Request: fold
Amino acid sequence: MGEKAVAAARAVNYRGAGTIEFLVDKYRHFYFLEMNTRLQVEHPITEEVVGVDLVKEQLRVAQGEVLHLRQDELYQRGHAIECRICAEDTENGFMPSPGVIRQLTEPNGIGVRFDSYVYEGYEIPLYYDPMIGKLIVWPTTRQFAIERMRRVLYEFKITGLKNNLGYLRRIMYAPAFVKGEYDTSFLSKYSRSLQRSNGENEELENMAMIAAYVDYLFNLEENKAVRTTDSRPISRWREFGLQKGVLRI
Reply:
C-alpha cells in the first residue's frame, strides 16, 4: 500500500503532506478509497509510533525546506490507540449534543496525549463537528495500549453535555475488539452490547464529579481572606492553570 500511495502522489507531481486511504478485505486485498491533501485526523497515531512531529515537518516543507528524515531512518515502535472524544448522544443515533462544558478533567500520565481546544465554559456549537478532542495512548504493545486507554477513559470527566466516553469504554472491553477481530461492520454488529447496561449509572458518576467541583469552589472562596495580596494583573490563564492543577490532585 505504501508503494501504491507513493506512486499515486508522484503521478500527479504532488508535493506536501497528504494521506491516501485504502480499504482492505479479509483476503488482504486492498482498494483505493480516497486521497486527502492534508494530514490524516489520526496523525498523532503515526507520530507516536514513529516519533516524528508530522505537523512540524509539514510546515518545514511548506517553507521550502527538505525533509529532515529519510524513509530508511523511520521505523515503528510500540502501539498507539486514538479515541475521538465527541459531544454526541450514542443512544440516539450518535446525534450531536451541543452545550456548555461545565467541568472538565483531562487524564494525564506517561504515554498519554490529549489534542484538544476546549476548556471549562466552552460551548460546543451546533453548526460544526462535535469532536471535543483526540485522546491518544502509547505503550509497547497493543494489550498494554488497551489497558492504558481503559484507565484514561475512566479518568476523563466531562459534565454539561452528552458525550461518548461511556461508549468508548465499552468498546475497550468488547471481546472482538480486544482480540483484534473486527472490521467496518463492528459497530452495527455489536450495537446492542455496546449500549449502556442497566447496571451502569453514569449520571451518578457525573453528579459525584459536580459535587466535588462545587466543594472545591467553596473552599476556594473560603480561603480568599487569608491569601496575601497579589499586585500582578489578573491572568485568566494562570487562574485556569491553578484550578486544573487542584482538580488533578
In short: The chain has a mean pLDDT of 85. The CA atoms of residues 65 and 100 lie 42 Å apart. DSSP finds ten helices and eleven strands in the chain.
